[in-house]
Structures are given as structure tokens and as C-alpha cells.
Design brief:
Blueprint: H1 21-33, E1 40-45, H2 51-56, E2 60-67, H3 70-80, E3 86-90, E4 102-108, H4 116-129, E5 130-141, H5 152-163, E6 166-172, E7 176-182, H6 188-191
Parallel strand pairs: 1-2, 1-4, 2-3, 4-5
Antiparallel strand pairs: 5-7, 6-7
Helix pairs in contact: 4-5
Length: 195
């Protein structure tokens, strides 16, 4: 069964991104858990309407925001117009992986739509294109729903295993699972010269 990702984006506020406290809090947690103040080259997979992209932009040198939905890309481009260092592209990340290096890769509310084979390939792509201290942030809704192919905990574990990245940080509650994986095990305090 193919999932129609355009349909939710016909609503004025898909998934309640702008109105629900859960979503506002989730974005704040994502921003806080990214270990670097400066994000460098960022890849955001599943950008939807661009709310997380907008939050990342002031900390990034360049953001490549990707979504499979043409409607989502249109909304994100409208939100992010005027930000010359932000590029919004319509693509299926399982077929069109960008051939460039990234310092931060965000995969938010996407992994559970993918099979284990697709996740393994995505993880191999991440490993190939990662900078020396690349961060991979995974954030997913923990409750089951009809379109889930790989549950969030299993997806996170598989991505950690195949990338070989170290777990730097994480957050978990009844609704949300966030893991921060990195190609480097250097801590925030070490990077900041405190240790």
C-alpha cells in the first residue's frame, strides 16, 4: 500500500505541527539535543512544512531539506523563502541520496515508514556521506499506527548498528523517542574545551 503524503499537507496545519504543544516541545527537544552550536552542512530528511528547517537555519551553514511530498515541498519553500542557504528538494531518499558530505543528518518521523532493507541502505548512505564527526538525529512517535513498517525502537537500533555511530544522547517518554548518534564520541564539553 503506497502512502499518500500529499493528503495531510492539504490541511492548513498538517498533524497539528503549529498548534499542538507536543509538536512545539518536540522541536525544542530536537534543537537542544543537537550537540553543536554551529551545525555546518545539514541534511533534513522529511522536512514537511519546514518548521524544523526554519529552526535549524540560523545555526547552519547550509541546509538541504528533502521531502517525498510535492505539496510539502511547496509549503516548505514558501515558509523558507529568503533564506539563501536553505535548499528544499522533492525527492524519495530511498532512491535519490544526495552525493555530498553532511555534518548533521536529521531523520524525524520518517524511519517507521521504511523497511529494514531500506533503513539499512539509508544507514550505509549516511556512513559514506558523513563528515568525520557527523551527527545523526532520529526522532519518532512511539505509538503504533496503520502505516508503520518498522517500529521506531527497532528502526533506531538498526540505524545505530549499521552506521556504527556511537550514541551521544537521547530522550524517551511515553510518546517520543529521540536518539543522537555520532561518527565521533567526543562530548559537547570536550568540543567546547571544558575537558
Amino acid at each position: 500500500m503506497a502512502i499518500d503524503f500529499d493528503a495531510p499537507h492539504e490541511e492548513p496545519d498538517p498533524w497539528g505541527y503549529e498548534t499542538h504543544w507536543y509538536e512545539k516541545r518536540r522541536r525544542a527537544l530536537i534543537a537542544a539535543l543537537l550537540p553543536g552550536e554551529k551545525l555546518g552542512q545539514v541534511l533534513e530528511i522529511g522536512c514537511s512544512t519546514g518548521l524544523i528547517t526554519q529552526m535549524l537555519a540560523p545555526r547552519a551553514r547550509h541546509v538541504l531539506a528533502i521531502d517525498v511530498s510535492p505539496k510539502a515541498v511547496s509549503l516548505a519553500r514558501e515558509r523558507l523563502q529568503g533564506l539563501a542557504h536553505v535548499e528544499v528538494v522533492q525527492a524519495d531518499i530511498t532512491q535519490d541520496w544526495p552525493a555530498r558530505s553532511f555534518d548533521q543528518i536529521l531523520l524525524c518521523d520518517v524511519a517507521y515508514y521504511l523497511s529494514e532493507a531500506q533503513l539499512s541502505q539509508l544507514a550505509r548512505n549516511v556512513r559514506i556521506q558523513a563528515s568525520a564527526d557527523c551527527v545523526l538525529l532520529l526522532a519518532h512517535w512511539r505509538h503504533p499506527f496503520a502505516q508503520v513498517i518498522t517500529p521506531a525502537p527497532a528502526a533506531h537500533d538498526l540505524l545505530a548498528e549499521v552506521t556504527g555511530f556511537a550514541r551521544l544522547a537521547g530522550y524517551q517518554d511515553h510518546d517520543l523517542l529521540i536518539d543522537v548518534l555520532s561518527a565521533s564520541s567526543v562530548s559537547v564539553a570536550q568540543k567546547d574545551g571544558l575537558l
